[in-house]
Amino acid sequence: MINLIKRAIVPPIGRYIINAISSSLKMRIVGYENYQYLKEMGKKCVIVFWHGQQFYPIYHFRNNKIAIMVSLSNDGEIQNKILSSFGYEVVRGSSSRGAVSGLIGLIRKMREGSDAALALDGPRGPYQTAKEGVNYIAIKEDCCVLPIACAFKSFKQFGAWDKYILPYPYSSGIMLVGRPIMPNKLNIAAMTHKHLEKILISMTAEAETILNSAGREIKAAPAAEKKAENISGSLSASEEEYYQPEEKIDEETDENEKSESDTETAPEEKNEVKTLKPEDARRFGINLDLLDGGSNKNATEKTSDDKSPEGGAKEIPNEIIDILEENDENEINTGRKNEK
């Protein structure tokens, strides 16, 4: 009876709270054009985030034809009703029960034209430790993965495993939308979850850093203290490099390729030359007549138009002279050793 009452009362209250708080927030969205670009190009994606940061993304991505997986528990049923009211297509599953059927359900929805959304460390943790479900979807659907991270200046952080963050009304906040990742093209499909774990840890730290100067720092659980590679750098660098749309990246790649092509077609510098005298040629065992490509008696004869060095000497590249002298010196040293 109590569960029935909760299922009837909590969903509308939850929807009201999410709407009221989220609409009051002073949010800065960085990189949302990445998601817009995917939509314009008709590309499917899986949106991933930490379980404890899902409050605002649920509001922001509402009514976008996105399938999302929730647990099979009683709380999952409440979540089901709240998410459905925001226009999400809910698929039931969990890490312990129905995981495979839940992932298959997400894939089925994606093949019907929906995007997918996953809490990377859900539904039961450990905190900020990625689960492998996203690997299965990436391999099967060959789709993009879109990482998202949030931070707020003022908030309530709960003590549950996910350190759930509930922003206070009218708080300032930021949501970072990372560049789309193609696991299959990067040959990381089987390790997509670990790759994304590093990215989300880095993005979360970056979002917190942006807001720390004017607010308090979000408490970090052990997993969040990992020394992940700083994929995006500072915010200014992020907006120019990491969070820019894929289209802009492609344009820069074309410019880089063009620059490399121009470099390749540039005229090569001529090698410097040294004069190889006849006595040195005899010492090295070289027939100067053959340096012009064949035996020619006139090769060593000096004429009025001959520009070559006097005395039958030939000009050859430095590198060859250096090699010959090095080999000759080695032979001399070897002979000295043998004499000893």
Fold and architecture overview:
The protein has 340 residues and is α/β, with parallel strands linked by helices. It has two domains: 2-247, Glycerol-3-phosphate (1)-acyltransferase, CATH 3.40.1130; 273-339, no CATH class. Helix content is 44%, strand content 16%. It is built from eleven helices and eleven strands. The protein has helices at 2-24, 32-41, 55-60, 74-85, 99-111, 133-141, 192-212, 235-242, 246-265, 278-284, 318-339; strands at 26-30, 45-49, 66-70, 89-92, 115-119, 144-152, 155-157, 165-167, 172-177, 273-276, 314-317. The strands form three sheets. Strands 1-9-6-2-5-3-4 form a seven-stranded mixed β-sheet, with helices on both faces. Strand 3, helix 4 (74-85) and strand 4 form a beta-alpha-beta unit.
Describe the protein's topology.
Elements: H1 2-24, E1 26-30, H2 32-41, E2 45-49, H3 55-60, E3 66-70, H4 74-85, E4 89-92, H5 99-111, E5 115-119, H6 133-141, E6 144-152, E7 155-157, E8 165-167, E9 172-177, H7 192-212, H8 235-242, H9 246-265, E10 273-276, H10 278-284, E11 314-317, H11 318-339
Parallel strand pairs: 1-9, 2-5, 2-6, 3-4, 3-5
Antiparallel strand pairs: 6-9, 7-8, 10-11
Helix pairs in contact: 1-4, 5-6
